[in-house]
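Incident review: delayed structure delivery

Summary: a single-chain prediction request sat in the queue longer than the usual turnaround. Root cause was a stuck worker, restarted by the on-call engineer. No data loss occurred. The affected request and its eventual output are reproduced below so the record is complete for anyone auditing the incident later.

Affected input:
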Amino acid sequence: MWRAKIFVTLREGVLDPQGQAVRSGLMSQGFKAVSDVRIGKYMEVTVEATSIDEVSAMVRAMCERLLANPVMEDYHFILEEVQ
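Output delivered after worker restart:
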């Protein structure tokens, strides 16, 4: 069994209005040092696979087909073997 920790973020250059709103809120709360905020998604998926190569290919396919929009978003993941 493997756990994939998947991080999906907007690509550099893609407008992030939610991130801008959070940045504005932080600035109004006195956090003047904040220069940028980017909002993303975090997911954990548990997968049965026999090897790290197999699970890596499955998670990559999941991200490219459903979990991330390849036009606007980037993704990366961390794999952990679980009992």
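Verification: Helices lie at 17-28, 52-67.
Action items: add queue-age alerting; document worker restart procedure.
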